[in-house]
Design brief:
alpha+beta; Arc Repressor Mutant, subunit A; Alpha-Beta Plaits; 2 domains; 6 helices; 4 strands; 36% helix; transcription regulation; DNA-binding; WH_DNA-bd_sf; Tscrpt_reg_AsnC-like
Length: 168
């Protein structure tokens, strides 16, 4: 994932492109251009800039771990020995069921998003995490149900309001 270090300014076309990419991800550049009433090259150059600036960080499909046989979702807080902090994330990345990890402020050092086939499998994954050199302790919270799924499109709406651009 690319992170933009500077703030990108958006115009009406940028925001319209972002909205289309989120709402119709499979449509393609030619269809976006048709819907926006601009040249295909214009849309392509906007997409290229948004990718370069880190606003768009990928075009891969979102896969469902649950539909792939991993219905258990847990968040694991990992306390790390500070002298091994740099190597622990690399070691944890070798665990395929660990699908995301962030260093955090607050309780723990790293917050991991982990999936498993069932609770017994989750226990085995957590045991593998605990046995990672440099991991001092873990605390696990099992998710019961997604109340607000991952989303970014509402942020496009905020930017549209802030810039005076309103989509229909």
């Amino acid at each position: 994932m690319t992170t933009s270090s500077s703030s990108t300014s958006f115009d009406k076309l940028d925001l319209a492109v972002l909205r289309l990419v989120m709402e119709q991800p499979r449509a393609g550049v030619r269809e976006y251009a048709r819907l926006l009433g601009v040249a295909r090259a214009t849309v392509q150059s906007r997409l290229d800039r948004l990718v370069k600036d880190g606003v768009i960080d990928g075009f891969a499909p979102r896969l469902s771990p649950a539909a792939m046989g991993y219905p258990v979702l847990a968040f694991v807080h990992v306390d790390v020995s500070q002298e091994r902090f740099a190597e622990v994330p690399r070691s944890l990345a070798a665990i395929p069921e660990l699908i995301e990890a962030h260093s955090i402020a607050g309780e723990g050092d790293i917050l991991c998003r982990v999936v498993a086939r069932d609770n017994r499998h989750l226990e085995a994954v957590i045991e593998r995490m605990i046995n990672t050199p440099g991991v001092v302790r873990t605390r696990t919270e099992v998710a019961l149900n997604a109340r607000v799924p991952h989303r970014v499109l509402p942020l496009v709406g905020v930017l549209e309001r802030e810039t005076g651009v309103f989509s229909g």
